[in-house]
Amino acid sequence: MTAFTHLSAAPTRVQRPRGKAISPTEIRLTWRKPLHPNGVLKPYQASCVDIERRGTPQIVTTKDSRTTSAVVGNLIPDTKYQCSVVASTVPVVGKDPAQFQRRSAYSNPISTKAQTPSRVRRPTGKAISSTEIKVKWTKPKHPNGILKPYKVTCFTTSHGGTANSVTTKDNETTSTVVANLIPDTEYQCMVVASTTAAVGQDPAKCESRSALSALIRTLR
After folding, report:
1. What are the tens digits of pLDDT across the range 26-45?
2. Cα(51)–Cα(117) distance, integer angstroms
3. What is the CA radius of gyration of the chain?
4. DSSP secondary structure letter of residue 147
5. Considering the domain boundaries, does residue 10 fall inside one?
6. Could you cite one Gene Ontology molecular function of this protein (predicted)?
7. Domain limits for position 196
8. Are residues 131 and 95 in the same domain?
9. pLDDT tens digits, 115-130
10. What b/e readout covers 94-123, taking b as 16+ CB neighbours within 10 angstroms?
């Protein structure tokens, strides 16, 4: 009686994976098993590559062949990635392992979350009229993404805590005039630096606030 051995082959292609950014540096991927394994499946390899730079992809291997999700880390904040999954079977001895692998189509673009910029140093200010204060500051040391225009707010220390705000015209501007203030009144001013939030990300998670300035009194 002759024994016949069923040889392994590459599995059918895994369907396009789905992904979602779970942090500025991580994407969680999910996928389905191949319809036809065509052999003993090995753990999957999931990888993500920067769409613009097309550099070395970040790769993670699942713990076993039953796992159909993975978190790919070490990514760049606020960056678009495309991800894929490689399914493979245990190769036949003496055969090229690449013949037993099949890569999925690439996912739709997935943007990692923006990261909060480092804190702007305490701003300085000077009254230039009875209703205006000129505020100056320096850029955050680490933008951690694409900076939005700054928001500058001056608060009274009396009169029920009235606040007046102004937004700069761009992210290169590091001084502005806050107007419509109360004459002969003490204020403290603050600068908010922020990056552009990814789709579905809470914009407040991308803001950092400076400490309040020293007291600044408007002119009489």
Report:
1. 999 999 999 999 999 999 99
2. 23
3. 27
4. B
5. no
6. ATP binding
7. 124-217
8. no
9. 899 999 999 999 999 9
10. eeeeeebbbebebbeebbbbbbbbeebebb
In a domain, 11, yes or no: no
Residue type, 68: T
Instruction: Please count the CA atoms within 13 angstroms of the CA of 1 that sit on its side-chain side.
Output: 1
Amino acid at 124: T
Amino acid making up residue 175: S
116 lies in a domain?
A: no
For residues 105 and 165, membership in a common domain is answered with no
Bridge partner residues of 102 (DSSP): 87
Q: Which CATH number covers residue 181? A: 2.60.40.10
| Tokens read off for 8 | 């392994």
Q: Is residue 36 part of a domain?
A: yes
Q: Which two tokens stand for residue 201?
A: 């990300």
**With contact defined as beta carbons under 8 Å apart, do 69 and 31 qualify?**
yes
CB-CB contact of 184 with 218 (8 Å): yes
Q: What is the pTM assigned to this prediction?
A: 0.68
